[in-house]
Amino acid sequence: MAIEELQLESRPPLTVEEFERLAETEGWDEDTRVELLDGEVVWMSPINDPHAACVKRLNQLFNRRYADQVLVSVQDPIRVEPYDEPQPDVALLRPRPDFYASATPTPPDVLLLVEVADTTLRTDLGRKARIYASGGVSEYWVVDLNNRVLYVHRAPAGGSYAERLVVGPGERVRAGFAPGIEVAIEEVTGVS
Prior knowledge:
- By secondary structure, the chain is of the alpha+beta class.
- It has one domain (46-189): tt1808, chain A (Alpha-Beta Complex), CATH 3.90.1570.10.
- It is built from 6 helices and 10 strands.
- The strands form 3 sheets. The protein has a 6-stranded mixed β-sheet.
- Mean pLDDT is 91; it is low at 1-7.
């Protein structure tokens, strides 16, 4: 096999605008599970039952605890221009009267992003953490369902997070935007 055959086709990264036009021309709907990461269209993993249950649990938990402070967004896009439009599992957004009907939320709108990882831990802690930090998302959590821990990332700086901690069983965490409210890791993972 020739070396030339091993080289991948080189093309420029897609911008968010090109990605959205592609979605329209291809007829993608809400069941087409793709996101734009580093200018590349990435197919998302199927959602299994433990993952779906955790997202539902977080939705209920955040709506109960922070209802007056946030708008809870579940598996909706966040625009991190110019080459990223991920769809985090849960985003806590600054409330807006139009519920973001006029524009996709961007990092300044985000109070907290959460990804739930059962098969995507490496991507969530690596590529997505870099994208969110580069975009200026102030706080990013990764729920590791397999190890029953929560990775907390804060203080984005230079494409990474300056503050990272792991919250394990029996421990509690506070969201940076609402330090007066604590959440037990068991409330997040569903395992006591």
